[in-house]
Specification:
Elements lengths: L1 H9 L6 H15 L5 H26 L5 H4 L3 H4 L1 H11 L5 H20 L4 H14 L5 H17 L1 H5 L2 H25 L1
């Protein structure tokens, strides 16, 4: 598997966005699966490489070192909501290595969103993932979801205003659950 990744890295100028889209779908499935830690960690490493590659490809395109055809389709942006879901799930994994790799990917995804403006549909899908992930009871995931919301509000405030009602409902529900949990824990002592 690592040999294949090495070959993909070496032949990056011959990359097909369509094939990358399929590979990203597989990587997301592996991250969200109950497979062992090695396949999930490897999938996170690959996702990290894709994020770096497409960020770099965009930078090269802007400096006219690549033609438009080479970077016109960005599969990471098309799969951003699935990648985000996988990364958020892995942030609260039992394995420390997976949590670290997921945290690295989360930082890259946040900067990726800064660089590439998602379409309204992509932004809606990202917000839907964030709402879904607010149901997670793990602190790392919840904290990252809140950071994502702040980032999206700062970057896309006008688009986010229309979507915030549903997010705020989920957030209030989450805070209420947390408050009830704290009350319950303090009365059990």
């Amino acid at each position: 598997m690592m040999e294949f990744l090495k070959e993909v890295r070496q032949n990056s100028k011959d990359r097909s966005p369509g094939l990358d889209l399929e590979v990203l779908s597989i990587l997301v499935d592996i991250c969200c699966s109950k497979m062992g830690s090695f396949p999930r960690l490897t999938a996170l490493i690959w996702i990290c490489d894709y994020l770096k590659y497409y960020t770099r490809a965009d930078e090269l395109q802007k400096t006219s070192q690549l033609s438009m055809n080479e970077t016109s389709t960005n599969p990471v942006l098309k799969k951003i909501f699935d990648i985000l879901r996988a990364v958020l799930v892995c942030l609260s994994d039992d394995e420390e290595e997976i949590r670290k790799a997921a945290a690295k990917n989360n930082v890259l995804l946040l900067s990726f969103i800064e660089k590439f403006k998602p379409s309204s549909e992509e932004l809606n899908q990202i917000v839907a993932v964030l709402k879904e992930m607010l149901k997670d009871n793990k602190a790392n995931t919840t904290e990252s979801v809140l950071l994502w919301m702040i980032q999206l509000m700062n970057k896309f405030s006008s688009e986010m205003l229309t979507m915030m009602e549903g997010v705020l409902e989920k957030l209030i529900e989450k805070l209420t659950e947390s408050e009830e949990s704290v009350i319950h824990n303090s009365t059990c002592d």
